[in-house]
Predict the structure.
Amino acid sequence: MNRLAASPLRNLTSIVAFVVAVVILATIGYMRAGWSFQDAIYMVLITVYTVGYQEVRPINTVYLHVVTLSTVVLGCTGMILFTGAMVQVFTSFQIKELLGLNRVKTDIDKLKDHVIVCGFGRIGFMLAKDLAAGGLPFVVLELRDKRFQEAIELGYLALQVDATNETALIAAGVRGAKVLATVLPDDAANVFITLSARSLNAGLHIIARGEAPSTESKLIQAGADQVVLPAYIGAERIAEMILYPASARFISGSDKMRDVDQVLRDFGMGMEMVVAGEASAAAGSTVAELERRGQGAFFVVQIDRQNGETIARPPATTRITAGDGLLVVGRVGGALSAAMATSKPRSGRTF
C-alpha cells in the first residue's frame, strides 16, 4: 500500500520538474530574441496553459517559430501529464484510506467480548498498553488526530471518531463488547458516553473516569459499574505514604510485592491500606471480630499504630484503635469496598 501511494508521488514530482524546466528554457529562448522577461514569461505561461491570448510580440522569425512550437508541444504535454498525475495521487490516497477503513471495520466485526477504550490521553495510553500486554482485544476511540496517529503507530485497533456519538460506539462493536472504559478528561463527555453505552448494551461492564468528586454519583446513575477518580486516588496514595510509610513501602517497594498485588487482582482481590475511623465499627474491635463482620470479604495482614508501632500478621485477639492503619487484603467490590465507600474519609480510606 505504501508503494501504491509512493509511485504516483514520484511521477508527480518528475512531471512538475519537467514542466518547470520547459517554462525556464522557453522563457530564456524568447529573451534571447530580445524580449523582456515580463513579455517572455507571459508568452510562455499562456502557451503552456493553452489559454491562447494573442501574442505580445509578433512571431515573425524562424527562431521564434521553433521556440513557440517547442513550447506548445512540450508545455501542453507536460500540463496533460501533470493533470493525470494529480488525479492519480488523489485517487491512490482515497483508495488507501478506503482500504484502511474497511480493514479496521473487518477486524472490529471479528471481535467479541472485547474492550472499548474511549480516549487515548495519558490514562488511555497506559490502559491500552496494559491491555495489549495482557493480550486482551480492544478498540481505541480517539478524535484528536495526533493521539489517533499515535495509537495507529503502536499497532492498536483504533477509530478516529467522537466517542460521544452513538454511531461511533456501534462502529466499535459496543453491542458485542464486554467492557467499556471511558477515560476522557471531560466529565460531561464521560457521563454522555456512559448513558449511550448502557442504552446500547445493558450487560456491558462500564468503567468511567471522573475528575470532580461530585461526578461519581452522576456516572453511577448514568449506568457506570465502577468510577475511578484519578485525583482522589493520587492524593489518597500520597497520604498513605506520609501516614504509613512502612506499609506503603511494603506494598510497592519491591517487584515481588507488586507481583503479589497483580496476582491478587487477577483473582478479583486487592491489597490496600485503610484507616480505622474514630466513629467506625472497626475502632475498638479485635481483628477476629472485624473479619467476622466482613463475612470473609477481607482479612487484616498488618496494623500500623499511630505511635509508630507495626504489627505484622496480627493475632486474632489484637484490638484495633481509632487511627490505626490496617493493611488489608480483600475481594474487589466486596464488603471491604462497600465499607470504604460508605465511611467518612479522614486522611485516607476509612472503615
Remarks:
- Residues 122 and 183 are 9 Å apart (CA to CA).
- Residues 1-6, 333-351 have pLDDT under 50 and may be disordered.
- Strands lie at 115-118, 138-141, 158-159, 179-182, 205-209, 226-228, 269-275, 298-304, 310-312, 325-331.
- Residues 111-228 form a domain with the Rossmann fold fold (CATH 3.40.50.720).
